[in-house]
Amino acid sequence: MDNVREIVKNGSIVLPLYLLKNYKELNLELNEFIFLMYLYNKGNNIPLNPKLFSEELGVDSKEIMILIDTLSTKHLIEDKVIKNDKNISEEVLSLDLFYDKYSNLIVSNINEKDKDNTDIFDFIQKEFGRTLASTEYEVIKAWIDDGNSEEVIKEAVKEAIINGVSNLRYIDKILLEWRKKGIKTAADVEKNRKNYRKKEEESEEKIFDYDWMDDSIDE
Question: 40 exposed, middle or buried (CB, 10 Å; 0-12, 13-18, 19+)?
Fold first, then answer.
């Protein structure tokens, strides 16, 4: 897999930093990990084309087939037949099993390192009404590592939901703005909201207190 290592060096394959540090916990050898990341960069349900994989990676097609078989045995990829956009059946490699294990790995490591913050994931999933993706777990963990308290993250999630938005990018912007304002607790959040409402009310009072009848036009 020396050619594949060169591809990684050249930036042709993007390796998630978290996975790079923890891939051995998925029971992977380095060459298996690199090939899995090659597939990961192609998305999910990748058309099974060993010849193309071989050409793009500069690896013998026999080794490609061995890697596919090994990753399937380790329950990280799955060979499926699905209908494509043209309603034609095609053989694909599904990475659903890998995404599940990836998510479990992140949650498991977080549980071991910081048990006090684990319920934040359940809270966000409940507010969003869906299961979080593995990449979303990484984003939330980054919030915690950046010093955002659980209570402030929850308030940011609530703020986003009130505004009809349920994505982490929007919440990340809220947290960034709050950090700039020195907001560190739920009490700080409430104080900020009160100040905002007060300014809104003062602005409305200025409009309604204006005496429109005295706004005469000079003839």
Answer: buried
